[in-house]
Design goal:
Elements (H helix, E strand, L loop, with lengths): L2 H17 L3 H14 L11 H5 L14 H9 L8 H6 L15 E9 L2 E9 L10 E5 L6 H8 L1 H8 L2 E6 L23 H17 L6 E6 L1 H12 L6 E5 L10 H8 L17 E6 L8 H11 L5 E8 L5 E8 L5 E8 L6 E2 L8 E2 L5 H10 L5
Helix pairs in contact: 1-2
Length: 383
């Protein structure tokens, strides 16, 4: 059997194991298939500094070029793989921080229902509330955690200035070996099922316990977290007043692992072309040099959330203070209100724009996705 055919067969075996309610076996098969195809490097040898850092699973890049394909291309005189490894090398996960760089409380908690239990971190500003606070839900990407994402986005510092609560749900490794939210699994794409039910329930809990403003609840995420944020906005338009997606994917772009891999490359299932039943304001950030999630996903996502309604678009170009150029396209409704913003960051890869280097998968060259998302969110209110 040829290498690629063997890889596909191994992945299909994993899917069948998952359908047979044997997730442990499915995970092992997936890891073996990725490792044999050259997509899952082994853990590096420990160094004194690495040995002191928190343990992490090996980084898995699903868009890598298998060793057998690299050898085949070289034998035929073709070019080896492109420079995706070099572009992502600086974005490898770092040891996660212990406390946020903001004066408020960063408390821990958990929420559970029939779909399972997830832990979370919640930032509560130090400044006294003058009324019900807005709530921003932030979903981390693969190989990240709530604390890591809080550090990298620096959202807590901005939330302190604006008086917002920030909720960071934490994915469990038992639910996904790479700590990804399962956006690509049909089981986790429906209202009141799987992970959407957990995230919505957790959001409602925080609104109730901390007196948040139910009309100003927002959700955002990076990569897999961004894709899940889009799922949540589509499934719960009455709960989330606006959605922010950084380097994510459209709703319905995949139904399983294999279609998820294709969607990351810009090859979507038909479901990604369906518009939402109810328009939800959306802000999208995506680097035009993203080698992990193709930038076309941002364009499809914007069209999906805008639907068939008539909008007027305004395109602006600019440069962040640190030199990274961008193009922002704003969609306005008939009343002149911004219902969507699409930020394309030129020269940027798969990383949170304007992020803090203390967290993983960040690009300090800006513009600040956190600041722009929060600005966009606070201009929106549900009803």
């Amino acid at each position: 059997m040829k290498p690629y055919e063997q890889f596909v067969e191994n992945m299909l075996s994993a899917v069948r194991s998952g359908q047979g309610k044997d997730p442990a076996a499915a995970t092992a098969l997936i890891q073996d298939a990725l490792r044999n195809a050259g997509l899952m490097p082994g853990a590096p040898a420990a160094t004194p500094s690495a040995a002191e850092a928190p343990a992490r699973a090996p980084f898995v890049d699903l868009n890598g070029v298998p060793d057998w394909l690299r050898r085949q291309a070289t034998a035929k005189g073709g070019k080896p793989a492109d420079d995706w490894r070099a572009r992502l090398d600086a974005l490898r996960p770092r040891p996660q921080p212990v406390t946020p760089d903001a004066p408020g409380q960063f408390i821990e908690g958990s929420f559970g229902n029939a779909a399972g239990t997830r832990r979370y971190r919640l930032y509560v500003p130090a400044r006294a509330a003058t009324g019900p606070r807005p709530l921003v839900v932030m979903l981390h990407g693969c190989q990240q955690s709530a604390a890591d994402f809080a550090a990298g986005t620096a959202m807590n510092r901005l939330a302190e200035e604006q008086g917002c609560l920030v909720l960071y749900p934490d994915q469990e490794r038992s639910a996904n070996s790479s700590n990804c939210w399962n956006w690509f699994d049909a089981t986790h794409q429906q209202r009141e099922q799987g992970e959407p039910s957990l995230l919505a329930g957790m959001t409602r809990k925080i609104v109730q316990e901390h007196g948040a403003d139910s009309r100003r609840v927002y959700i955002a995420g990076l990569s897999a977290g961004g894709a899940m944020a889009a799922v949540m906005g589509a499934a719960y338009p009455e709960l989330y007043a606006a959605v922010g997606v950084h380097s994510g994917l459209p709703v319905g772009a995949a139904r399983d692992l294999m279609s998820g891999l294709n969607a990351m490359k810009g090859k979507h299932l038909h479901g990604a072309s369906r518009t939402l039943r109810r328009r939800v304001p959306l802000i999208v950030f995506h680097g035009d040099q993203d080698a992990v999630v193709h930038p076309s996903n941002g364009e499809v996502l914007i069209r999906q959330f805008l639907g068939d309604g008539t909008v007027r678009e305004i395109e602006e170009r600019g440069t962040a203070g640190t030199g990274r150029g961008h193009t922002r396209t704003t969609a306005l409704d008939d009343a002149g209100r911004a219902v969507a913003e699409h930020w394309v960051v030129h020269g940027a890869g798969h990383a949170w724009a304007g992020g803090d280097p203390s967290g993983s998968y960040t690009d300090a060259a800006g513009p600040s996705a956190s600041a722009e998302m929060l600005r966009f969110f606070l201009d929106q209110a549900g009803g």
